[in-house]
Design a protein that fits this description.
Blueprint lengths: L5 H4 L10 E5 L3 H7 L3 H19 L4 H32 L1 E5 L2 E6 L5 E6 L3 E8 L5 E7 L7 H4 L14 E5 L2 H19 L7 E4 L16
Parallel strand pairs: 5-8
Antiparallel strand pairs: 1-2, 2-3, 3-4, 5-6, 6-7
Helix pairs in contact: 2-4, 3-4
Length: about 220
């Protein structure tokens, strides 16, 4: 059985009895802002432009304007490069949740598939922002380590010693986390094990609205 062109998107057929529960790609703008830190980069160059303008103001208004313009031009070029990287990363990535595993297809120049059976996932967490977007991170069982650089930008930030794969750039993170949580619990029950459902953190104390659709915007 195949679904969503699995002959092209996954390294093998979905085994009999396994179902596709959700699939989607990250939103490149969300990836740009939160994985590639575009907001920070823009702010840095804005402050630097003001600093350079003030430093050159002693020479004259024209010199001050030129200094600010040069700095802003470099900043725009840097942001354009980051935008291209974010778009390419999102365009070539695919996340799939089945009834038995999570599959991550990532990589721009060299695409890699990571098949993560539920039995290898120790814990999962959802981070939801004010607008409902966010990410789902996976803590792997001991001995199932994947290199941070191999995962980046689809890794939980700053977890270098024990990298956690992350479904980043989701426009409906709560919904994806709910689907994954139910699947993890169901799979654990089949194995006769206990599993703590997906935990959720939010940027606000109020409940984050959940979108009704299952697809992530490409």
């Amino acid at each position: 059985m195949k679904a969503i062109n699995l002959e092209k998107l996954l390294p093998e057929d979905i085994p009999e009895g396994e179902r596709i529960l959700w699939h989607g790609r990250p939103n490149w703008i969300l990836l740009l802002r939160r994985a590639y830190r575009a907001d920070f980069v823009a702010g840095y160059f804005a402050v630097l432009a003001i600093w350079n303008a003030l430093d050159a103001s002693s020479v004259g208004a024209e010199a001050s304007a030129m200094a600010a313009a040069r700095t802003l031009a470099i900043g725009v070029a840097a942001l354009a490069l980051l935008a291209l990287l974010a778009w390419a990363s999102a365009r070539t990535a695919l996340f799939v949740i089945t009834s038995r595993r999570v599959v991550m297809k990532i990589g721009v120049a060299l695409q890699v598939f990571y098949n993560l059976p539920f039995s290898q996932i120790q814990n999962a967490a959802v981070r939801v922002e004010n607008d409902g977007s966010g990410e789902v991170t996976l803590r792997l069982a001991p001995g199932k380590r994947i290199g941070y650089l191999n995962l980046w930008p689809f890794a939980r930030p700053f977890r270098f010693a024990d990298p956690e794969p992350a479904l980043r750039g989701l426009t409906n993170a709560a919904r994806v986390g709910e689907i994954l949580g139910r699947a993890l619990v169901a799979a654990a029950n089949e194995r006769g094990e206990a599993f703590t459902t997906v935990s959720e953190t939010s940027a606000t104390a109020t409940e984050t609205p959940v979108e009704t659709g299952d697809a992530v915007a490409a």
